[in-house]
Design a protein that fits this description.
The chain has 232 residues and is of the alpha/beta class. Helices cover 49% and strands 13% of the residues. The structure holds BIS(adenosine)-5'-pentaphosphate (AP5).
Length: 232
């Protein structure tokens, strides 16, 4: 793909339930178009690990599988989107997750300047990755993540070559703290209650592209690339 086309991709929003494959696809989109993945879950986990004021407030909420408050998350996203690497575009993975966050994002995008704003591309491409409930349970209980760089595996569907070791960087693979069955159920409930309406919000505006996330990961990636490139 030509460099000019790469630079005009602009913002991409990935919606989907926990385990739908947002992180998996965000990494591939980022690698292809040279734009950063902004995962609110990763940013929050990093704050928890560093023991920041935000991390202290978020830790117990996340451990229960509930959503962190809109104000805290929007402030965190605002700071990240103002960094220079976001100017050509970015991928939001796990944000917005409530109608209030979606409204905040629209207002923010309208008032902030991005490189592609003048070309009328400040509205994000919104991709909904749709997956069955039972498949989500399997994916989340089977997920393993590499400690060093967040590479994602699944013991059922995408196992590493050697048990508990990352193929890419050799670091240890771990189970995420919130991938325990009782927490997974709460996360899936929170998705239905609070995030499903966000998909409806974008659908009503004719801005939603839905992809069957139950297909193999490579097929899902291909469909997302096609959609993005049809709009570039
Ligand atoms: P977050 O980190 O965003 O987690 P999540 O939304 O629950 O999503 P996951 O990371 O679990 O799944 P994913 O869709 O990225 O799937 P993945 O690609 O890993 O949020 C964590 C917590 O932070 C929240 O509960 C909340 O407390 C807080 N938070 C975050 N954002 C917030 C916000 N905006 N507002 C408030 N609170 C917020 O794939 C899953 C597995 O499936 C992997 O093992 C993968 O290998 C496998 N897989 C992927 N695609 C396929 C495929 N096509 N076929 C087979 N297997 C596949």
């Amino acid at each position: 793909m030509a460099q000019e086309a790469v630079r005009s991709v602009g913002p991409v929003v990935l919606l989907g339930a926990p385990g739908a494959g947002k992180g998996t696809q965000a990494k591939r989109i980022g690698a292809r178009y040279g734009i950063p993945q902004i995962s609110t879950g990763d940013l929050l986990r990093d704050n928890v690990q560093r023991g920041t004021a935000l991390g202290v407030q978020a830790r117990d909420v996340m451990a229960r599988g509930e959503l962190v408050s809109d104000d805290l998350v929007c402030d965190m996203v605002k700071d990240r989107l103002r960094e220079a690497d976001c100017r050509p575009g970015f991928i939001l993975d796990g944000f917005p997750r409530t109608p209030a966050q979606a409204g905040w994002l629209d207002a923010f995008m309208e008032h902030e300047f991005f490189d592609n704003y003048r070309a009328g591309r400040c509205k994000p491409i919104v991709v909904l990755i749709d997956v069955d409930y039972n498949e989500l349970l399997l994916r989340l209980t089977g997920r393993r993540t590499c400690l060093a760089n967040g590479h994602i595996y699944n013991v059922h569907f995408q196992p590493p070559r050697f048990d508990e070791v990352c193929d890419v960087d050799g670091s240890k693979l771990v189970i995420r703290n919130d991938d325990r069955e009782e927490v997974i159920r709460e996360r899936l409930n929170a998705y239905e209650r609070q995030t499903r309406p966000v998909a409806e919000y974008y659908q009503q505006q004719g801005r939603l592209f839905a992809v069957n996330g139950g297909l193999p990961a490579d097929t899902v990636t291909e469909r997302i690339f096609q959609e993005i490139e049809s709009r570039a």
